[in-house]
């Protein structure tokens, strides 16, 4: 009788470069740094990934959820994956045969249960409407026509944030508040590859920027500096901010199946944002404003940070909303002769009211905007909760599991 052949089989985790919108969510989520990227692609290191699946639910497009079964010795290396334009097809590996012949086949990595390493929820609120995702892809995008493009921030300031309205005409493009779309900017990067899509949160409610019309609005900041403050011209944000009425853009999406609002009328929204992170908050607030239900007890509390009042998008309309509809708290970091104030500071000032919301199982928390704010906001929530005798770690886990803590920073 032949001895069992020891063949090492790998279920290799791969990212589809045709669908991936390079949003970095997977790399941030991975608890063991198994994901990396270059200018071209996001890829998974075969020798590090343990198939924990932590990255799969947060991926807005599903590009992350690709697997190929092959001999471990033939695993695709990082350098090779970085050059891909399309995923390789599954080769013929006699998995069934191996499973019976090979005692070592238990080495196949099967996707395991989700780990607790993700900081926010990977599930939507229980009462969220069901979203449509990935109706249009890189291979088959759709188009929308620009019907409005207005600068929201004061012309005298450095922050150029635009409100851009895109109309889909008769093309179905159903969206929910909290979802995003991908824009395919024209042209190619230095290596000749077409620019990849950039993601933008939808700033309008599900029934349209203009109710009853098939349109969405975006809140786009013109990127003129990179994260280190060096001058640069962001490809897609400059393209969008320069668009004129009547221009046609290539769109993919919609994306996002978890950062969605609850639909039971007694749910509370605790919204914390900076800059363009206000887009989904505007969408949710406007949806609630349009459907104010008599007798509903749901509250809206907003913490919104910007450099100055002139650089806060939607400042006018926001401050005109009735106080009994939304509890708005603004934090400005660069008002001349005033101390620097961040959203976290404003939250601490309102600690008793924030804690009241934290104690209520109907509260859903949304954080969107600068990456850097995430730690500070979670720290503020922890201090506020503990200051009121709440066990933050237990509450945090519960919020995550119940789809009540949503983080989207970029
Ligand atoms: P690129 O050409 O991609 O980058 C140029 C340089 O600027 C690079 O060095 C890059 O590292 C740096 N850079 C990229 N983004 C920024 C930034 N924001 N600030 C400073 N430097 C930057 N943007 C919005 O304006 N509104 C939104 O509602 C919005 N929603 C988003 C939602 C999600 C889930 C994600 C992941 C991103 C979102 N973004 C949003 C960011 C957006 O997708 C682009 O990353 C951004 O517009 C920059 O793209 P770009 O092509 O102009 O710059
Ligand atoms: P700052 O004045 O320190 O840059 P931006 O205009 O760059 O989009 O930023 C929006 C607001 O977010 C600004 O007021 C900015 O302040 C503030 N901000 C910067 N870092 C953080 C952080 N770590 N936590 C909260 N807010 C922040």
How would you concisely characterize the structure shown here?
This protein has 410 residues and is α/β, with parallel strands linked by helices. It is 20% helix and 22% strand. The strands form four sheets. The protein has a six-stranded antiparallel beta sheet. The protein has a five-stranded parallel beta sheet with strand order 13-12-11-14-15, with helices on both faces. A two-stranded antiparallel sheet has the order 1-4.
Describe what you observe in this structure.
The chain is an alpha/beta fold and 410 residues long. The chain has 3 domains: 9-101, Alpha-Beta Plaits; 142-255, Translation factors (Elongation Factor Tu (Ef-tu), domain 3); 268-409, Nucleotide-binding domain of ferredoxin-NADP reductase (FNR) module (Rossmann fold, 3-Layer(aba) Sandwich). The protein has helices at 25-29, 78-82, 95-101, 235-241, 278-290, 315-319, 343-349, 351-358, 373-387, 392-401; strands at residues 9-14, 35-37, 42-44, 66-71, 142-151, 161-167, 180-184, 198-201, 215-221, 248-255, 268-274, 300-306, 327-332, 363-369, 405-409. Strand 2 and strand 3 form a beta hairpin. The longest helix is centred in the last third of the chain and has 15 residues, at 373-387. 39% of the residues are buried. Mean pLDDT is 90; it is low at 94-115. Bound molecules: flavin-adenine dinucleotide and adenosine-2'-5'-diphosphate. Flavin-adenine dinucleotide is lined by residues 23, 180, 198-201, 219-221, 223, 225-227, 232, 234-238, 276, 279, 408, 410. Residues 139-261 form the FAD-binding FR-type domain. NADP(+) binds at residues 201, 221, 276, 333-334, 340, 369-370, 408.
